[in-house]
Prior knowledge:
The complex is a heterodimer of chains A (about 400) and B (about 300).
Chain A: H1 11-19, H2 24-51, H3 55-59, H4 61-66, H5 74-94, H6 96-99, H7 102-113, H8 120-145, H9 150-171, H10 187-213, H11 218-233, H12 236-250, H13 259-284, H14 288-296, H15 301-331, H16 335-338, H17 345-353, H18 362-395
Helix pairs in contact in A: 5-7, 5-8, 5-9, 7-8, 10-11, 10-13, 10-15, 10-17, 11-13, 12-13, 13-15, 14-15, 15-18, 17-18
Chain B: H1 2-26, H2 31-45, H3 49-61, E1 71-73, E2 77-79, E3 83-86, E4 88-91, H4 95-123, H5 129-147, E5 153-156, E6 159-160, E7 165-166, E8 169-172, H6 173-199, H7 203-211, H8 216-246, H9 250-253, H10 258-267, H11 272-301
Antiparallel strand pairs in B: 1-2, 2-3, 3-8, 4-5, 6-7
Helix pairs in contact in B: 1-2, 1-6, 2-6, 3-6, 4-5, 6-8, 7-8, 8-11, 10-11
Amino acid sequence: MVVERPVERLGLIGWLHKNLFSTWYNILLTLLSLALIVAVVQPLLIWVLTQAEWDVVMVNLRLLLIGFFPLDQIWRVWVCLAATMALLGLSRGIWPHIVGGVAPVYGAGLLLLALLPIELNQRLWLVLCGGLVFAGAALSRFLVQRSNQRIIGWVAMGWVLLLPLTLWLLRGFGLVLPVIETSEWGGLLLTLVMAISGVVFAFPLGVLLAIGRRSELPAFRWFCTISIEVVRGVPLVTVLFMFLIMLPLFIPGSESTDNIARAIIGLTIFTSAYIAENVRGGLQAIPRGQFEAAKAIGLNPVFSMLLIILPQALRIVIPSNVNQFISLLKDTSLVVAAGGGIRELLGMADSLMGQAEFQGKQAEVLLFAGLIYWILAYSLTYVSKRLEQHIQRHTT
Amino acid sequence: MLNTLIVSGIGIILASLIGLVVGIAQLSSNWLVARIAETYVALFRNVPVLLQILFWDQAVFLRLPRVQDAITLPGPLYLTNRSVHTIGPQPTSTTLLWLIIIAIGVFVSLIVWYWLHQRQAHTGNPSPRLLIAVVIVGVAGLTGWLFLTPPPLSTSIPTIGRFNFEGGLELPRAYISLLLGLSLYTAAFIAENVRAGIQGVPKGQYEAARALGLRPSQRMRLVILPLALRIIIPPTTNQYLNLIKNSSLATAVGYPDLYQMSRTIVNNGGQLIPMIGLVMGSYLIISLTTSFLMNRYNRKISLQTK
């Protein structure tokens, strides 16, 4: 017979006593914490609700979110957002343990935003995006329950195709869709484009560098090691400075190439060195026996790497690469410090603060930008933590 | 260059202290304290450090009153929208002599420390080594202070002048914002490392330490912390390096650090390629030195296996 472990029932008073007032120093700590909360939260709330002038954010909302993207073409941004949200919803249905609360919170958030006083058109788009999250989640859960496994492949492919299709749609092509130069992109849109393309391009480069660092050819190994260590040893700002400011001075004609492409190259090179180190850690964790087994069944080095070693190693390093993406997302803001006039989210906030009409409202603008970064980074951290737990459960 | 080192050094110390406190607070048995610490980490970790620096600079310190009606805090500590003024030490003619006396004190205490250490290794008699060493240095410093005339340091108190404060220690707004932004941001990461490190010590170690009859303070100091440090040190080294590299964001608030200076020189028609090479080389040297030192420390405390 199995005897259940007795569950401790404390009640409110008991809980308070156990967790807040058990000893004299705990009482002291509790009182100090309460004082701290009151001292910090109260003036902050008063300021946010009564003194702050949020109209500076409302007036410039479009600039902060999409920059100077032409308004008559704004449906392209909405389509990209809707596709992303649909994929998020579908993923929620397939991997509920990993995506967790992120999808419903995003969906509900978008629906709530639709209540804001904005144009009817935008409101409909918001409702569509929010609704797609829930519809996607319901659809994929239904299909998974009917043990339709093909949906997983489709969703994975959707995520892979998302970036190229998004870039293609946003930039446009000659005949049907007018081209929108990247100089008109800005705000949050640009932050996301830079961060996502940075990590997507950096990933294969990082894997190559990591393999190169373990190569048996000394020249190749030294080249990879030195480039990884040098890039990791210098600040990102100086790397961006090189690509944004110095490159056009060195190479005549390259000033016409677009700023944002150069920033993305800088971010890619910087991130690839860090990804390389993560992947190297994953490669080191693969037992020797796997290499020997691959050799024993007659695979040549390339195939044994591609088919046996890399799939296992990359699986281990998924969480650390997600973390790398989170820090890249925050680090895209460094293009402001490097100069070059790219107006991503923080750059746009910075240039708004410099305008005379918005003097004295820096706190509002910065807090709003900070809130957006926070929502994105926090939800990614949440997913990455759950992913880590998921992988740990399934490897041991 | 010096400014980069100063702001990184102080930033590392501040971030470690805050990180340690917050990291331990996250595991506190007091529910409220643990939640506050977790909120701090979640809040400061997920916002770009540049935004935080700009926030302190533009939204907090710029909004402070002008010099004429500065906020006065006990200390005296004056807050204005240009800089923070406080009491500062002022070297006098005997400062150098005093420093030499302290250096001798440190030297003597190191010898005594080593001797006591050897004695404990041989006889097993523990002795309050740290206390004795600190007392020796303290006595050296105090005698120097009492017997030297004039005293080695005089305090200079800021007084309000016609346009600005005169005397005292002046900390410019850019410096304070940079320091606050960097240390609060990095501290959130260090706190996570500390938490993971303490949680990573197997439960059996607590129980074994208790079975040996060690007191709670001894348990923490002799068993748990050394084990936790092994887990904490490597990721924290990375955070230190990140802080040093992020100090180049000084350029955004106009604090004259290594990177900012090089940009000014380049703008004034200096040689571009040598300058940027010099900057990158300097950061490389600082980074490599730090990681070398931390790796040595890590090897010293890591498991000795034959």
